[in-house]
Amino acid sequence: MAHSVQGLVIFDLGKTNAKMILRDSVNDLTIDTRSTPNTVLTDGPYPHLDVAGLKAFVLGALTDFSKAGPIDAIMVSTHGAGIACMSDGDLVLPIMDYDFSGLDQLAAAYDAIRPDDAITGSSRMPRGLHLGAQLHWLMQTHRSTMADVDQLLFLPQYWTHWLSGFASSEIAYAGCHTDLWNVQTGDYLDQSSVGLNISQLMPPFVQSGAQIGPLRDGLCQHLNQPDPPMILGGGHDSSLALVPSILDHTGPVTVLSTGL
User: Fold this and answer.
1) d(CA 206, CA 44)
2) Strands 83-87 and 40-41, how do they pair?
3) Which of 76, 70, 19, 22 is nearest to 206 (CA)?
4) Is the pLDDT of residue 54 over 60?
5) Is the dihedral of CA 110, 142, 152, 38 positive or negative?
6) How many CB atoms neighbour CB 24 within 10 A?
7) pLDDT tens digits, one per residue of 173-221
C-alpha cells in the first residue's frame, strides 16, 4: 500500500460466523464490529452459502462504519475450501458448503484420481474440504452447467471481485488443502481427469494485502464518503493468522485455528 491505511474494514467469513471489523490500523484499535451467522441454505441443488444474505450484511456494516469516518480500505479473510464457479462475471452455481454429505457418494471415485499427498501438501480430508473433491462432484452431477464456467474464484477472491470488479487469485489459498496446487513445482495441477483446465480458469495472482482496485461504483452509494475505499487482496484465514507470529516472534510459535 502506498500510504498508511487508517480506516480499515475487515470482512472475516468463518465457517460459523461472518464478521465485519472496523480498525484504526494506525493506532492499532478496533473501533466497531458486526457479526452474523454464516447460514447454510438448502433450497438449491446442494447446501450452499447465503451469498445474498452475506452481501446485505456487508453493505449494512459498511453503511454504519462510514458514519464514524472515512473507510480507506477493505480486506477479506475467509475459511478454506470455498470456490465460486463463474460465467461472464456471475455465479452459475451456488458456492458449496464443504460439509455437504452428498460428496461422500463420489468420494471413492475422487480418491482414485486424487493427486498424491506429497504433491498437494495435504492429507485427504472428509467431504468437500478439498476443492478438487467439490469440483469433481460438480463435474459428475452438473456437467452441462459446468460447461459454461469461464472462471474459478477462490472464496476470498469471489468477495474481492464483488467489491472491486477485478478478478484475482491468491497463492496461500491455492496451497491450502485445495488439491489444485502442486507444492513441489509451484504451479496448478493438471486436472484433466476431472475435466477442467484449472490453470486457464484461474485469474492472475495478487498478493494478500496488495491493492486490487477501488470499491466499484455500484456499491459506493452505501458509504457516507466522497472517495471510494481501496479493496485489498484477500486471503485464507488460517494462513493470515500466521503473519503476526512470523513478524512479531523470533522463536517457535504455535498457532491454534479454531475456525470459529
Assistant:
1) 32
2) unpaired
3) 76
4) yes
5) negative
6) 15
7) 999 889 999 999 999 998 777 789 999 999 999 999 999 999 999 999 9
